[in-house]
Design brief:
This protein is an all-alpha fold. It has helices at about 1-10, 35-60, 65-70, 75-95, 105-130, 135-145, 145-155, 160-175, 180-195, 210-230, 235-255, 260-280, 285-295. About 70% of the residues lie in helices and about 0% in strands. The longest helix is centred in the first third of the chain and has 23 residues, at about 35-60.
Length: about 300
């Protein structure tokens, strides 16, 4: 009897602890920063080389082809560094960031609407105050072209950058820095990445003041970072936001002038500051993702 009881007492209990599952790499928003330096070097090298050769080959002609080719630098860099460090499975996870499944609901698109309306208000205010005028025919023609322009920008005119900036770089920066600091740093990097375009005749950047443009980039990056985090690491919402911002900014510049002007920069920074204060600097980044980045999970 005693032996039976002793056997029962000493027998090991079954392990009821649930196994720890690794996070889906296509949904991570804060990871180890490994590979970030290589990404930046490749992204800048690809884009700046394309823009340097393009400016000389075109010799004062339309800079659009060179600008579009160079815009693929962040995407190309993200793919190459991911392939080298994580292999085929890593590249697959990188592209799965385009998935629409369970990507934050309506929140990313509500933030997109907020920033687009803010830029539109910066365009409408001078018209309302009588300091700028808009021709109805020009406005009607511009609005008819918006759908095609939106698709082109999403595919090759800015949205294509997002797999690199948000899909690759931002999670690594957020793995090393607090969310707000990570996005401000990425905004500064993004502004400097555009630097050669300021010397290329015919680009939007050649018509604006670099410090104002840099502030605009930082503000937009904070907003786009919040969209990315709210979308749980998905880039489709950010691509849509990027394209929508470029479309409304382009309409503003064409119809009332003053690209990257005081009103536009102020509106964007106001939204960025509001989001930073409202989220206490988290910008939609969940603490669980922060903890995984810290522990290396």
């Amino acid at each position: 009897m005693f032996l039976c009881m002793a056997t029962e007492i000493s027998s090991p209990r079954p392990n009821t602890t649930a196994p720890v599952t690794a996070p889906d790499p296509s949904r991570t928003t804060a990871v180890d920063p490994r590979g970030l330096t290589a990404f930046l070097v490749l992204a800048f090298a690809f884009s700046w080389t394309a823009w340097w050769f393009g400016a000389r080959l075109l010799d004062g002609g339309d800079p659009t082809p060179a600008v579009l080719v160079g815009a693929f630098g962040p995407m190309v860099a993200a793919i190459l560094v991911t392939a080298f460090t994580q292999g085929r499975s890593g590249v697959g996870a990188l592209f799965r960031r385009h998935s629409l499944r369970r990507r934050g609901g309506v929140r990313p698109y509500a933030i997109t609407a907020l920033i687009v309306l803010s830029i539109a208000a910066a365009a409408a205010l001078p018209v309302f105050l009588g300091t700028a005028a808009v021709e109805e025919e020009a406005l009607r023609a511009a609005l008819l072209g918006v759908p095609v322009q939106f698709v082109l920008i999403a595919l090759v005119g800015g949205g294509n950058e997002e797999l690199g900036w948000r899909g690759f770089a931002l999670p690594r920066l957020q793995g090393a820095l607090p969310p707000l600091a990570a996005n401000v740093a990425l905004g500064a990097i993004w502004a400097v990445w555009h630097a050669p375009l300021f010397e290329m005749a015919g680009t939007v950047q050649s018509e604006v003041y670099f410090p104002a443009y840099a502030l605009l980039c930082v503000g937009l990056t904070v907003v786009l970072g919040h969209i990315f985090n709210s979308a749980r690491g998905g880039v489709i919402a950010v691509v849509i936001a990027h394209a929508a911002i470029n479309v409304v900014s382009g309409l503003k510049g064409m119809l009332v002038g003053d690209p990257a002007g005081t009103l536009e920069v102020t509106a964007v920074l106001a939204v960025a500051v509001f989001l930073a204060l409202f989220t206490r600097g988290r910008l939609g980044l969940r603490r669980a993702d922060d903890a995984r980045a810290t522990t290396g999970a």
